[in-house]
Amino acid sequence: MKVLDPRYIRSQRDLKKAFQRLLKKRKFSEISITDITSMAGLSRPTFYLHYGSREMLLADCFVDIEVQVLNRLKTLRKKETLDIWRKTANNLLFSEFERNVKLILTIIEVNQKLLIQCLIKINAPYFREYLEFHEKEMPENILENYLSFYAAGYSELVFRWLNQEPRTCSAEEMADFCTQLTSKYLKDIFIMDLAVRAANPVGDSSGT
């Protein structure tokens, strides 16, 4: 198969490396496909063998980070309590954000939805397990709305932090802040859910 060909794998890796080197020096809008292939020592047709656009290459570079983070967190969850896992997850995320500043900022600028979806993937199991631990039930569509709102806010926080010059908080401090914020957010969800249930008790037919 084509994807198992060592030459295919090597050329894809070289394109990613070349792109990320360029991204450290220029804005995404200033990087052309020719720039990428020239730095990688590859031809333009080779680029299109892998990607249909610069945006697809950018997304693939981000997916590499996402997969790495998800795999590490999956392994960690088998060893640690939920609270420790949550704290470690935020530490890992902000460490990766700081290590890949230009890439993350470009993702937010070009396709913020990718980062939001990544944050939802990471946090969805935690939210569900948290609810299960506290013996709470919530319709899946409601939980998805809460997750989307949370991930969008988290993404905006990351954007503001990475854009600070100089940054007033370290990656570890931001991770601690987000860990506390997540706990408060989940507690607030419980309070709001209880308030809604109290205002609309099951079987209440008033006003109908």
Topology summary:
Elements: H1 6-23, H2 33-40, H3 44-50, H4 54-77, H5 82-99, H6 101-133, H7 140-162, H8 171-199
Helix pairs in contact: 1-2, 1-4, 4-5, 4-6, 5-6, 5-8, 6-7, 7-8
Describe the structure.
- The protein has 208 residues and is mainly α.
- It folds into two domains: 2-50, Homeodomain-like (Arc Repressor Mutant, subunit A), CATH 1.10.10; 54-199, Tetracycline Repressor, domain 2 (Orthogonal Bundle).
- Helices cover 77% and strands 0% of the residues.
- The chain contains eight helices and no strands.
- It has helices at residues 6-23, 33-40, 44-50, 54-77, 82-99, 101-133, 140-162, 171-199.
- α1 crosses α4 (54-77) and α7 packs antiparallel against α8 (171-199).
- It starts with 5 loop residues before the first helix and ends in a 9-residue tail after the last helix.
- Mean pLDDT is 88; it is low at 203-208.
